[in-house]
Amino acid sequence: MNLKILYVLLLMLFLISFLKTIMSSSLISYQPVALPPNYYEYYPLNVTSGQCIFFHVITTLPSTIMLFNQEQFLIFKNDSKGIPIYFNVSDDVSFKTSPLSTGIYYLVVLNNVSNNTITVNVEYLLTPVSVYYYKSSLPAPIGITDYGVYNVSGILKGSIMKYLEAIGYVTVYNISAFNATPPMGTNRSGASLQLNVVLQVNTNNESYQFWLQNVIDFITSIKIYYIEDNIWNFTSNISYLTNASVSGKGAVYYYKDGNFYYAYSTTYYNYTFPFSLILFTKLDNISRQGVTISFGYNNGTGIQWYDNVTIHVFSVRSAYLLIDGYNLTGNQFYYDLELVFAGQGNGEYTYFKSMNSSLGLQIILQNGTIISPNSLYTFGSDTEESADNLMVLFQNNYAWVLIGNNNFHAIGNASIPKLYLYPPVTNNNTSGYGSLISLLALIFLIVLIVLGIRRLRRR
Asked: CA triplet 430, 226, 355: central angle to 5 degrees?
């Protein structure tokens, strides 16, 4: 008997802990609704096989809260006699379903308990997360992304991966982009390849999420590039940072709508085809006073750690880079790992006129093991920049980014592309053609510096 009681208590503690974990993550919220007596409000939820629905409903007075599948909801809608999957009368309900079949489900709040108008607040989360919530068509960031979600015989499964370093590989055989009306501070032929990761920092009292970007910025018309990092605060809907909270070689800049970001960029390099580069984003140090992130690249001269950035968070208990297929960040974005082509910056989406590139990803786990993500999707979601006229072709275990529009599906484990790592091309070409290119590049660089293009905002 004592063992049974202990088992029940442990099970209850596990369930309470699980619900607290879900509720502490960012749920997707609907706008509050005023509901008159004897009226109901319904919320459709599009579920893929294997997903669970977690919802939290708060009403100003007790109401009837129900969850229906599509068939039963139609019966309820016609004569109010549909049999729900879930039923409760309360003013504050939290519930998580078991894994469901594919279909549309309806969360219903019926104001039939009192004769007063009530205010309804609903928030929910599908787990594993729906990777198509933000992007399902072009323009979109195109490349390879690990969302922590994989499909097994049509059933979605989730995974959680804590790691210390992300490594992004690219070999470009051809690239050309054009935007006739680019945002201010970007170039008409600009494009980017972004290695985007999420940093989780846990303190004694709360958790923080920071979005780390390590980016190759291309000016495709004259074949030059530079490397830039950005850091954003994903803990809430407003990215608040200051020069006191983040310190490195760069600085904190204002974007828009109350959002701030950190940025730093390198010098410029020329490139020729085939062009290879490796990007590194590493959690370098954890202390009680904050965490240090190292941003690096290898363009043929060995790894260059071009910026070491400390995020000052006090009473740090733990920190790690995170891929999480069950939860969203505080601003309701994915805990994913992205290596994606997109516009150059400032929320730009650009049209690619030509593209032939191969991408690869690796991560270094907390125990030092190096692995390649084994369930990748062909598009990203977290970045504001997008690409048009691009697709990913998975062939012979390689992820090729080409011109096209056949995207938004899962692929397998992408092999590391063949690399051509030579020292970067300098402007020392003495031929007439080389001198002309050098002069044009120099003039262009001066213009870029004047315009401040090296502080691109990527959200």
From this structure: 90
